[in-house]
Amino acid sequence: MRTALRWMVVAVGVVHGLIHLFGAVKGFGWADVDRLDGPISTTMGVVWFFTAVVVIVAVGLLAAGARRWWIAVAGVAVASQMVIATSWADAKAGTFANLILLVAAVYGFAAHGPRGVRAEYHRRTTAALARPSEGDVLTEADLVRLPEPVAAYVRHTGAVGQPRVLRFRAAIHGRIRAGADKPWMAFTGEQVNTYGADPSRLFLIDATMFGLPIDVFHAYVGSHATMRVKPCSIFTMVDATGPEMDRSETVTVFNDMCILAPAALIDGSITWKVVDDRRARATFTNGRYAINAELVFNDRHELIDFVSDDRSRSLANGTSFRPERWSTPISEYRTIGGRSLATFGEARTHAPDPEGEFTYLEFHLDDIAYNPSPPMTNTPKLPPRWFIRLFWTVHRGLFRLTGGRFGLRRPKPGGYGLLCLETIGRRTGQERRVMLGYFEDGSNFVTMAMNGWGEAEPAWWLNLQARPGVQMHLVDRSLAVIGRRAEGEERERLWARWGQIDENLDGYAARRPAQTAVVVLEPASPSASSSSARSPRNVEADRHPG
Which of 197, 227, 464, 492 is deepest in the core (most CB within 10 A)? Predict the structure, then answer.
């Protein structure tokens, strides 16, 4: 979602979440709420409080751009509406906010879900980048067949002595418009190009028109090209394809090669003809298409323009094309990606009168990587660190607020339970409380000191090592335990059991610089494991560990 719309939805969601707290205030009897005339029980007060928290957390995921945020936003919109229904006469106005959240979730799914153009771009670029990327170093001998203006340009970019370019990934930004009298649209874009026997160009543009998001996806593989334009990631406005599109995008592929990957100009699919000491003509052949272009250089051996008469302009929503001269003047050379490249350019179409020649695109090169590796697909994802910390805080808060009625659970087959551990601060001497996942191993309870898979050791584990004797609360009882680290074969056995619960365990653990401790909590006395000396619901009345 584009920035302005995203923050508008976030603001609505935060305010909407905070308003739910009025229901919690009345349900807990903390104060009279004039706007709520109907009765709200203590149980429903907990529900209102929990809903407020999850609404704010969900829009926080949206604000952070978390993966699949739309699932959380849609879920909390439905949950909020169910809660509102219990006090409909007083809270029905909140339906409007939930509709906004649901519309945002629908857009999020369309734009970022498995059927969206971003998912297709990711799949296709991952496949393209999976091709072999090892190339020989470019030498002066490779430039022999090039015209001198072109060879001087390749040298100027610093390509000689570096690996040949077999592919690249680039990030750009700029603005684009559909005609000389049409409004400009700001955009950001990412593209992946590959070269060789089967060249490809995959280009994804995020644009904005009248405040609404527009997705544009160009795909050129082999010698076949398509272009799709989707407002709000939902409606297909342009779906261009056909021989004219294929030929036009072949020109674009060669243009990218000249501007962004000049080391690839030694490709055998290009034939050259010298015009003079500042110009050269090229014919680039791919499949059944052979296109022509003229390259223009300055005295510093920099490419400053690219002109071709073999490109067509898309008309009538991509259903028809008209041949028009096309040029891309470029400038502002600087070192980027280890090479001297033009970082600003224009795309101009030379239309017949009365429209005439005009610039329809301006771009700035932000970054480029040559012969990049494919993205990692086997590294498990984690929520943002701030979200993990917020979740811990809310979990502990609900446990305390409900007197232990919420927040704990027994282990289930293939899953872990939740316990509350009370340690004593090694510096302050004050009681500290933490919620931990666990499973049972005979009479012992097994957890991990993984700190949400953060790098540092968790404070509770440092406290436990300083004072091993602590109090533990389960869903049905509380007991004194002694904590210790599992070692050797015991650790391997218990780690394997954790691996049966979480298949991504080793991937998460690899994020941490040190080995993650497997912690065993042993009952302080043989009979303690079956005792009910203290219920977790009485934790607030007795906060001192036994």
Answer: 464
Tokens of 296: 């223009």
> DSSP string of 328-383?
--EEEEEEETTEEEEEEEEEEEEPPTTT-EEEEEEEEEEEEEESPPPPPSSSPP--
pLDDT value of residue 546:
27
What percent of the chain is predicted at pLDDT more than 90?
A: 53
State residue 435 phi and psi, 5-degree precision: -95, 130
SS3 label, residue 130: coil
pTM exceeds 0.90? no
Cis peptide before 523 (omega within 30 of 0): no
Q: What is the 3-state secondary structure (H, E, C) of 250-275?
A: HHHHHHHHHHHCHHHHHCCCEEEEEE
CA separation for the pair 56, 502 (Å, rounded): 27
Distance CA 204, CA 117 (A): 8
Q: How far apart are CA 82 and CA 105, in angstroms?
A: 17
pLDDT over 90 (residue 298) = yes
Rounded distance, CA 436 to CA 451, Å?
10
451 and 515 Cβ atoms separated by less than 8 Å: no
Closest to 226 (Cα-Cα) out of 212, 242, 214: 242
CB of 51 closer than 8 Å to CB of 76: yes
Instruction: Tell me how far apart the 2 most distant CA atoms of the chain are, in Å.
Output: 96
- Token digits of residue 7: 């923050």
How far is it, in rounded angstroms, from Cα 118 to Cα 213? 13
Which helix (DSSP H) or strand (DSSP E) does residue 280 occupy? Answer: strand 279-286
Which residues have a Cβ under 8 Å from the Cβ of 503 and sit 6 or more positions away?
none
- Using only C-alpha atoms, the chain has a radius of gyration, in whole angstroms, of 31
Cβ neighbours of residue 138 under 8 Å, at least 6 residues apart?
154, 159, 160, 161, 162, 163, 164, 263, 266
Helix, strand or coil, per DSSP, at residue 44: helix
How far is residue 5's CA from residue 104's CA, in Å, rounded to a whole number? 9
Phi and psi at 349, nearest 5°, equal -110, 140
The token pair that represents 469 in the structure block: 């004797």
Q: What is the number of helices (H) and of strands (E) in the chain?
A: 12, 22
Counting Cα atoms < 13 Å in the Cβ hemisphere of 470 gives 30
